[in-house]
Amino acid sequence: MTALNRVPSLMVRAGTASALTIAAVGGSIVAPGFSSEAAAATPATKALQIAASKKGSPYKYGATGPHRFDCSGLTLYSFKKAGKKLPRTAAQQYNKTRHISAKSRKAGDLVFFHSGRNVYHVGIYAGKNKLWHAPRPGTWCGCRRSGPRASGTGA
């Protein structure tokens, strides 16, 4: 059974089923500016800071930086610069990460969006229900609300 077979469909919006799944990619951390020196050194915290530094970079399908990104390109770039290797696409990243519940998520964790078994979007959790991501064509990298019903899968 693949990880995608275990993904629950938890959020319905405009008749389309979609959900958020959380994945931990770096140790225990807290949001930048509120962290200890030790926590600030984790790959997840570094990746979050790198993603934040790309605020305003335009979306471009298939782009992996350093000046343009798609959603998984931003996460790939941010974690690579932080010293953690991720695969290229959102679905590949989903399949290579440890899944956690929404209540266990911490700043720097990856958040995945899916419809059924199709993982179509990823971003980096910033805390307080916000997400750093590159949303779609015609937009820019930024920090936005991740949705009120974020949830995840067990490992």
Question: Which descriptors apply to this entry?
Answer:
single chain; about 160 residues; alpha+beta; endopeptidase fold (from Nostoc punctiforme); 7-stranded antiparallel β-sheet; disordered N terminus; disordered C terminus
How would you sum up this structure in a few lines?
The protein is 21% helix and 25% strand.
Write a structural description.
- With 155 residues, this protein is an alpha+beta fold.
- The chain has a single domain (3-145), classed as endopeptidase fold (from Nostoc punctiforme).
- It contains four helices and seven strands; from the N terminus they run ββααααβββββ.
- It has helices at 37-40, 43-53, 71-81, 90-95, and strands spanning 11-13, 16-24, 98-100, 110-115, 118-127, 130-133, 142-145.
- Strands 1, 2, 3, 4, 5, 6 and 7 form a seven-stranded antiparallel β-sheet that branches.
- Strand 6 (130-133) and strand 7 form a beta hairpin.
- Helix 2 crosses helix 3 (71-81).
- The longest helix is centred in the N-terminal third of the chain and has 11 residues, at 43-53.
- Mean pLDDT is 78; it is low at 1-19, 27-36 and 148-155.
